[in-house]
Task: inverse folding
């Protein structure tokens, strides 16, 4: 377990919408970003900044109403990795970014799922 990556991945929104992913799928699940700062005496500290749980991906441009997607109320986003058996649950999530459609290859980029709650299951 834990050594399998890639394969078929499915994205489903709580309103029933499915989105077809292409290429890279990345998750940020720490919920915090740390930055190092150096004090005048040479010692170092760190500053932790709370961050939303996030997932970014490239999707197939299926002519969805991107304006409606960006303005939609918060929803749940579930991403299932069929090959690894991992499921990612982003609860009360919303999309950020500036969606961009590449009309040459049909890819939709610059969309990120953001959530205050994240869970992961394997099975």
Result:
């Amino acid at each position: 377990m834990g050594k399998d990556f890639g394969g078929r991945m499915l994205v489903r929104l709580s309103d029933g919408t499915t989105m077809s992913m292409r290429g890279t799928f990345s998750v940020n699940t720490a919920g915090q970003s740390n930055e190092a700062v150096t004090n005048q005496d040479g010692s170092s500290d760190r500053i932790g900044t709370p961050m939303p749980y996030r997932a970014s991906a490239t999707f197939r441009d299926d002519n969805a109403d991107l304006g409606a997607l960006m303005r939609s109320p918060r929803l749940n986003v579930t991403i299932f990795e069929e090959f690894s058996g991992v499921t990612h649950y982003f609860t009360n999530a919303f999309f950020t970014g500036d969606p961009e459609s590449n009309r040459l290859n049909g890819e939709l980029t610059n969309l990120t799922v953001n959530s205050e709650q994240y869970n992961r299951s394997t099975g």
